[in-house]
Write a structure and sequence with these properties.
The chain has 509 residues and is α/β, with parallel strands linked by helices. The chain has 17 helices and 14 strands. The chain has helices at residues 10-17, 30-38, 53-63, 95-101, 104-120, 151-167, 198-214, 240-250, 265-268, 273-283, 297-312, 318-338, 359-367, 403-409, 425-433, 449-461, 490-500; strands at 19-21, 42-45, 71-74, 125-126, 171-177, 219-222, 256-259, 288-290, 369-371, 382-386, 414-418, 438-442, 466-469, 482-484. The protein has a six-stranded parallel beta sheet with strand order 2-3-4-5-6-7, sandwiched between helices. Strands 9-14-13-12-10-11 form a six-stranded mixed beta sheet, with helices on both faces. β12 (438-442), α16 (449-461) and β13 form a beta-alpha-beta unit. The N and C termini lie far apart (63 Å).
Length: 509
């Protein structure tokens, strides 16, 4: 039942201030505008809200028509996880590509140009970068979203990314604290658990977050993961030991703490979103992300009322909620002051990084690693895409691969899609390809036995097969040549296609 409460009540306004909900549509629904008027501090944009940059600019202007101090958040990591270019693929490679190149100036430049484009559209909070150390190669949710498996490399690129993004006037949100890299479960579906000792956590997981804090990250996002060495009973999002004791007190972080989406099953199935939200704010979180899956006014009211009831009932101290709301407003104030600062401190002064530049393609080309050699394709080929289910963070709306880009370079190129459900995939590819040269595109082949078997079988039958790995290149390279792009963004596909036809070539092995 919805509690009837006054829209002018201070506690109610604070409860609304800490919510970061999503909504449906490419224009702002009336209920969103009404809730903003009543105190809602943030809104979140997802792929469903986006058509063109011009439309997003109009949408953010509409959202701020009556209140300029509104945080507009987005999950725009670049690479595989893009919302701004959800239907075309990103103009920027993701973290793994940047980590592979290991040029801090390049990482800053990419983050700044991405931030400039977000700011131009009116977005002022980006839920990026991922500071997770991808120490578990089988991780189903992080993978190429991480700068890599080397702790110090991840730390220095996390700091560079934060600096670049915030130089554009967009607040960075470093995630997923205290580290989602050593998990084998996606927290969208269930509760991951990391069973390592405190020494390992401090030497590995926490190092990039310390770097982010030192770099001035305006926001940190909590992870829905259980780390018994830190708290045996509660996952990070609802753990006072982790959010307050570790992040605030030990790491000295004073910025905004936002939760990962509270409707994810790790929280929703364990506590329910209302109780989970109350526990998160009580534990030290300042804002609640919700709206990837729930995007209605009823959800906002339920969470608002749960927080108000918790204050009224003495479960949530009123001053804790007030402090959380104050941090949201402080971040909004920073973004207002930071507008138009894209050329300010931290701006990269390097060739190809000017506003509107193709710095993303420059980075994607540098990230390509070629093993082996073979004659380039000079005529139409056949692209066989070996696919698996996309993780929820990436989604299945965003195209990936090399077929579109290769087709533009070599008109007449055709493509087919093959999965674990395909009977005799090697024979199926050979029948479809005929005499044409085969290009096989895979993602994380080391995680999928069927894919590895099919790939080996195909290369054995057709040794001139080109293999493009667009995930984590963990498996031994096969193919003539083997091309590792370190990500599946649109520009990664273009960079690979250029190599296939004998154009721009990245580092060779």
């Amino acid at each position: 039942m919805t509690t009837l409460i006054s829209a002018t009540d201070t506690v109610t306004r604070d409860a609304l201030a800490v919510l970061q909900p999503g909504f449906t549509g490419t224009t702002a629904p009336d209920w969103v505008l009404r809730q903003i008027g009543e105190g809602l501090g943030s809104v979140a944009l997802f792929g469903r809200n986006i058509r063109t940059p011009e439309q997003v600019t109009a949408l953010t202007a509409q959202l701020r028509a009556d209140r300029d101090d509104l945080l507009v958040a987005i999950d725009e990591e670049g690479g595989d996880v893009t919302r701004l270019e959800v239907r075309t693929g990103s103009s920027f490679p993701g973290n793994l590509a940047l980590g592979h190149v290991d040029d801090l100036g390049l990482t800053r430049a990419v983050a700044q140009e991405l931030g400039r484009r977000l700011a131009e559209c009116g977005v002022n909070l980006n839920w990026a970068p991922s500071a997770d150390v991808n120490s578990n190669p089988g991780n189903p949710i992080i993978g190429v979203r991480s700068f890599g498996a080397d702790t110090e490399l991840v730390a220095r690129h996390t700091a560079a990314y934060v600096e670049g993004l915030q130089a554009a006037g967009v607040a960075a949100c470093t995630k997923h604290f205290p580290g989602h890299g050593d998990t084998a479960i996606d927290s969208h579906h269930a509760m991951p658990r990391i069973d390592v000792d405190l020494e390992t956590l401090h030497a590995r997981e926490l190092v990039p977050f310390r770097a982010a804090v030192a770099a001035g990250s305006k926001c940190v996002m909590s992870a829905h993961i259980l780390l018994p060495a830190l708290d045996p009973d509660r996952p990070a999002t609802v753990s006072p030991r982790i959010l307050t004791g570790l992040l605030r007190e030990e790491l000295g972080y004073d910025g905004l703490i936002v939760t990962d989406a509270v409707e994810m099953q790790a929280i929703a199935a364990t506590y329910g979103i209302e109780r989970g939200s109350v526990l998160a704010i009580a534990a030290g979180a300042d804002a609640l992300c919700v709206g990837g899956g729930l995007e209605d006014e009823g959800t906002v009211r339920r969470l608002r009322d749960a927080l108000v009831a918790a204050v009224r009932g003495g479960e949530l101290p009123e001053e804790r909620l007030a402090d959380a709301a104050a941090r949201v407003r402080a971040l909004a104030s920073w973004t207002q002051g930071a507008r138009g600062t894209g050329s300010g401190p931290g701006a990269a002064a390097r060739e190809g990084t000017a506003a509107g530049s193709d710095i993303g393609l420059v980075a994607a080309r540098r990230a390509v690693r070629v093993t082996g050699s073979a004659a380039p394709l000079t005529g139409p080929g056949y692209v066989a895409a070996f696919t698996s289910a996309s993780n929820i963070a990436v989604g299945d709306e965003t195209p990936w691969g090399v077929a579109a880009e290769l087709g533009r370079l070599l008109p007449g190129t055709e493509t087919g899609t093959y999965s674990s459900e395909t009977e005799q995939p090697v024979d199926a590819v050979l029948r479809a390809a005929g005499e044409r040269r085969i290009v096989v595109v895979v993602r994380d082949v080391h995680r999928h036995d069927w894919m590895a078997r099919a790939l080996d079988g195909l290369v054995a039958r057709r040794p001139d097969t080109v293999v493009v790995e667009m995930g984590v290149p963990q498996s031994a390279p096969v193919g003539a040549p083997h091309i590792a792009t370190h990500g599946a963004a649109r520009v990664c596909g273009l960079a690979a296609a250029e190599v296939i036809v004998g154009g721009t070539v990245g580092p060779t092995a």
